[in-house]
Amino acid sequence: MTSAIQRWQIESFDRGSLKQVEAPMPSPAAGQILVRTQAVSLNYRDLMITSGNYAWTPSLPFTPGSDLAGVVEAVGPEVTRWKGGDKVISTFVAGWIDGQAPPGTFSLGGPGPGALATHVLLDEQWVVAAPRTLNAEQASTLPCAALTAWFSYFEEGSLKPGDTVLIHGTGGVALFGLQFAAMHGATVIVVSGGAAKRDKALGLGASHVIARDADWPTEVRRLTGGRGVDHVLETVGGANLGRSLRAVAQGGRVSLIGVIDGGSVEAQAMDFIRSRGVVQGISVGHRRALEDMVRAIDATHMQPVIDKVYSFADVPAAFAHLERGAFGKVVVSVSGPALLPTADSAP
Predict the structure, then answer these.
(1) At residue 3, does pLDDT exceed 90?
(2) Looking at the structure, do residues 11 and 114 belong to the same domain, yes or no?
């Protein structure tokens, strides 16, 4: 049995300070589980936190990463939901089980525990069963990006067959939004800056793709017979919000998810008035929705889009790839020594 773990941490708000360090192996207390990490997917939020540009600033040193897939290694007293060998994925918002988020909830990967470690100590309520149909690398992509798209459609929105969805970009949330919309019989329009990425989006089920530098609000209106779209996944922010409102149908919905163009958004009052649109901020979602989404993925055998998988030793390169831009998700495969001899052994 190993007595230490490996983890990545930053020591200043500069990803040049990312370093791999050794730490003592933690032991689960009452209600806790020790998870051996198999894979971690990175989010744009991780870039913002590690560079000091997020709304919340962590204490240093800090281990980033919120989304993991792994195996339960050991359980503490009073744990009833899990046993050794169970395959799990993390929830993004710790303690948000269903309904409205209660006071005191927080996100993993800041200020909660970071995932970029060979082993992570978590409350038993902060994980769900991993999908049966996905491997660890694929499963690690679900807690933040996939759930954000799912939540905007099926918890806060009312996406239905025959609706039309406008999606900005080809990152993690965008492509999950494309796949979920297509899965449910919606027409998908993707706006992206790269021709190669637009072609790949068509291959994933998009009905139409439009160049970012085109007059895409006018083109969206043309493609929808002047009506506009029922739902927008707004991942850009800034002045893009106003343009999205000009592309939305009367009474349509804009899910405000991303801030690629900065933390502020810009729109004219008449954009809201003419569209009669609903603009709603989406902050991932609760555990029950994650469980619903996992069941849907297992039922449909949907495959998450991964741009590249990096080794645990190459975490800085994985961050650099995410910063350059990815088609889908960037994932880190984590190899750690198993503490249990078999998958079904009890701790």
Answers:
(1) no
(2) yes
Looking at the structure, do residues 259 and 186 belong to the same domain, yes or no?
yes
Q: What is the pLDDT of residues 33-90, one digit of tens each?
A: 999 999 999 999 999 899 888 877 888 899 999 999 999 999 999 999 999 999 999 9
Q: Residue 83 belongs to a domain with what CATH number?
A: 3.90.180.10
209 and 216 Cβ atoms separated by less than 8 Å = no
pLDDT digits (tens, 9 = 90+) for 121-146: 999 999 999 999 999 999 999 999 99
Q: What type of residue sits at position 291?
A: E
Q: Say if residue 11 is in the same domain as residue 139.
A: yes
Beta-strand (E) ranges in the chain? 4-9, 19-24, 32-41, 67-75, 87-90, 93-94, 106-107, 119-123, 127-129, 164-168, 187-192, 208-211, 229-234, 248-256, 278-281, 306-311, 329-333
Per-residue pLDDT tens over the stretch 220-268: 999 999 999 999 999 988 888 889 999 999 999 999 987 665 666 777 7
**Would you say 60 and 11 are in contact if contact means Cβ atoms under 8 Å apart?**
yes
Give the residue from 73, 107, 77 showing the smallest Cα distance to 90. 107
| Domain count of the fold of the chain | 2
- Is residue 101 located within the same domain as residue 197? no
Report yes or no on whether pTM surpasses 0.85: yes
Alpha carbons 33 and 253: distance in angstroms, whole number: 39
Which residues form the domain of 196? 157-281
**316 in the same domain as 256:** no
